[in-house]
């Protein structure tokens, strides 16, 4: 008997573990259904009748009243559904509380007690899934909430009680005590007071409604405000991250994780990842840095970290070779594009395949153009000034863009191992430069920024890259990472698959705004190999959210165009 009881208990426990995630999804759809019914209620009598009919059979509690109220409630429920999807604990508590309060209010207006009890039971059942909503509110917002709630309540009741008392004659109110006026204030604000307002009393009624709406909006803004860390990057964390990069930063994106405006998440003392909060998305920049066998551990730990804060997790620029690690964690990938990698140890300007490239390089060489290579630690101050001016003019005065493949600082003392390749014109004046970050240990260099003086020869870029590849080859390096090419497998000449005609069309369309296909035609002159890069996400809705976050993080809409540069 005891073993049978244990078996029944185990079955019940497994059933509950299965039911809780389902209840979490039910809560999201409940909020969406409530939003839909209130939209129907707000749109007019015909749709309102349908909503009321549905409500008689399944109590979804649409708000029957002036059109403004169901419209606002519908908007709130859409927001609430989003916060439930973000797995924020406050959202499930708010939904359950709303269901209970609405049921009690409906009971006061005549709803039968069994229906009220059933509705409250629905709220209680939804609360059973509270562990599926681990997202914590922002602590700073909670502190403000403790001040805002009594402040708005005090303003509301002071306005309502004093206003009703002064206007009691014109409104036909009998003698009430302070509690009666307070209750009547709530009834006026929600449009269920039974009083007739005219003239100045309409302004009074509007003031109460405005206070309620403003109070609710501000309170829920604080309650659902994205969780934010306040510590930032400490000097110790930056040093620790740099040490890990020096030990394990062989990937071309690893060094970019030392960018100052990225938050750092460490797993032990041998691995870390860099991310930025964009709205509710923790957007990881490239792969974690550390031993490859630790990638599943740090990603699982960071995933739990995000859940506790009500964040969605995404990654921009993940290495396609690591997909098996990510798939084990339930992450899905979306092909983003390819990175062009020059194998410099075999690079040469000899041969028919590079004839046009050789001609461009030799032409500038013969007319007196030259190159100089130096590491950041040895760049003289006057050169930093000259190259900084070239960079500023090239950007047309705009701020630096980039995120996953941008360091965000140029020729900084923080980066002694970065490589600067400077091109000089025949008068020995700097005319362009390339700035590279290292790939450790002595793997090669990854292109950070590519700048040239406005009006410089068209072949200068080929000249700088070719000479830098030869320099790295002679120094015993193996790779030089150039540019990232979005959706490249759909339009590359050497692609192994046919690719998608739709994505080819998208790439060619975007090429009018961002250099995508045109950069590919430039990079292929150097016979590069291609490294796959992906976006990681948890599902279709997450992919959209992560994609928008990536566009924001990269400042893709603010990229410098040729028309921005002064001739």
Care to describe what's here?
- The chain is an alpha+beta fold.
- It folds into three domains: 223 residues, no CATH class; 101 residues, Aminopeptidase, CATH 3.40.630; 197 residues, Gcn5-related N-acetyltransferase (GNAT) (Aminopeptidase, 3-Layer(aba) Sandwich).
- Helices cover 50% and strands 15% of the residues.
- The protein has an eleven-stranded mixed beta sheet with strand order 1-2-3-4-11-5-10-9-8-7-6, sandwiched between helices.
- Strand 7 and strand 8 form a beta hairpin.
- Helix 1 runs antiparallel to helix 3.
- The termini are far apart.
- About 1% of the residues have low confidence.
Per DSSP, the total helix count is: 18
Order of helices and strands: HHHHHHHHHHEEEHEHEHEHEEEHEHHEH
Shape: elongated
End-to-end gap: 90 Å
- On the 0 to 100 scale, the average pLDDT is 83
Rg, please? 31 Å
Q: Which regions are unreliable across 5 or more consecutive residues at pLDDT < 50?
A: 5-9
Give, in spatial order, the strands making up the sheet with the most strands: 1-2-3-4-11-5-10-9-8-7-6
Domain count: the total is 3
Helicity level, as a percent range? 40-55%
Number of strands: 11
Measured by DSSP, the beta-strand proportion falls in 15-25%
Structural class: alpha+beta
Q: What profile does the largest beta sheet have?
A: 11 strands, mixed
List the helices and strands and how they pair.
Blueprint: H1 2-43, H2 45-57, H3 68-85, H4 89-108, H5 113-127, H6 139-166, H7 168-171, H8 178-189, H9 200-224, H10 235-248, E1 263-267, E2 271-278, E3 281-285, H11 295-308, E4 312-319, H12 323-328, E5 332-343, H13 355-366, E6 370-375, H14 381-394, E7 419-424, E8 430-439, E9 444-452, H15 460-474, E10 479-486, H16 501-510, H17 517-523, E11 529-537, H18 540-553
Parallel strand pairs: 3-4, 9-10
Antiparallel strand pairs: 1-2, 2-3, 4-11, 5-10, 5-11, 6-7, 7-8, 8-9
């Amino acid at each position: 008997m005891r073993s049978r009881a244990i078996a029944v208990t185990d079955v019940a426990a497994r059933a509950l573990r299965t039911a809780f995630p389902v209840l979490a999804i039910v809560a999201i759809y409940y909020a969406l259904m409530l939003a839909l019914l209130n939209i129907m209620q707000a749109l007019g009598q015909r749709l309102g009748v349908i909503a009321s009919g549905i409500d008689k059979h399944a109590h979804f509690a649409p708000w029957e009243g002036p059109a403004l109220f169901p419209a606002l409630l519908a908007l709130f429920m859409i927001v609430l559904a989003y916060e439930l999807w973000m797995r924020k604990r406050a959202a499930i508590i708010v939904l359950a509380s709303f269901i209970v309060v609405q049921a009690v209010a409906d009971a006061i207006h005549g709803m039968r007690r069994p229906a009220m009890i059933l509705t409250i039971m629905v709220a209680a059942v939804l609360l059973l899934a509270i562990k599926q909503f681990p997202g914590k509110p922002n602590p700073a917002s909670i502190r403000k909430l403790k001040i805002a709630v009594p402040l708005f309540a005090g303003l509301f009741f002071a306005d309502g009680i004093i206003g009703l008392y002064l206007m009691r004659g014109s409104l036909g109110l009998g003698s009430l005590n302070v509690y009666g006026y307070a209750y009547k204030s709530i009834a006026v604000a929600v449009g269920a007071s039974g009083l007739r307002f005219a003239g100045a009393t309409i302004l009074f009624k509007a003031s109460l409604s405005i206070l309620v709406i403003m109070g609710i909006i501000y309170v829920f803004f604080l309650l659902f405000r994205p969780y934010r860390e306040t510590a930032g990057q400490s000097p110790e964390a930056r040093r620790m991250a740099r040490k890990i990069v020096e030990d394990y930063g062989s990937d071309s994106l690893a060094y970019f994780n030392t960018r100052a405006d990225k938050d750092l998440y460490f797993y032990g003392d041998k691995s870390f990842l860099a991310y930025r909060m964009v709205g509710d998305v923790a957007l990881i920049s490239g792969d974690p840095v550390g031993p490859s066998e630790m990638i599943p551990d740090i990603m699982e730990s960071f995933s739990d970290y995000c859940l506790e804060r009500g964040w969605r997790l995404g990654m921009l620029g993940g290495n396609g070779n690591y997909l098996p690690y990510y798939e084990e964690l339930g992450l899905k990938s979306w092909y983003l594009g390819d990175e062009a990698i020059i194998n410099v140890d075999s690079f040469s300007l000899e041969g028919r395949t590079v004839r046009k490239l050789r001609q461009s390089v030799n032409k500038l060489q013969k007319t007196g153009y030259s190159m100089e290579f130096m590491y950041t630690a040895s760049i003289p101050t006057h050169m930093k000034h000259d190259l900084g001016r070239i960079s500023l003019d090239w950007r047309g005065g705009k701020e630096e863009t980039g995120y996953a493949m941008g360091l965000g600082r140029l020729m900084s003392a923080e980066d002694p191992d970065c490589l600067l390749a400077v091109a000089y014109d025949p008068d020995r004046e700097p005319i362009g430069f390339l700035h590279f970050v290292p790939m450790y240990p002595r793997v090669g260099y990854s292109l950070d920024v590519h700048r040239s003086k406005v009006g410089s020869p068209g072949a200068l870029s080929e000249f700088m890259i070719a000479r830098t590849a030869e320099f790295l080859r002679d120094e015993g390096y193996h790779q030089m990472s150039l540019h990232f090419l979005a959706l490249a497998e759909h339009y590359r000449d050497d692609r192994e698959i046919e690719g998608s005609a739709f994505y080819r069309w998208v790439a060619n369309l975007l090429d009018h705004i961002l250099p995508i296909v045109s950069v590919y035609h430039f990079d292929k002159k150097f016979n590069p190999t291609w490294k796959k890069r992906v976006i990681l996400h948890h599902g279709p809705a997450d992919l959209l959210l992560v994609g928008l976050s990536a566009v924001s993080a990269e400042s893709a809409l603010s990229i410098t165009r040729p028309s921005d540069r002064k001739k």
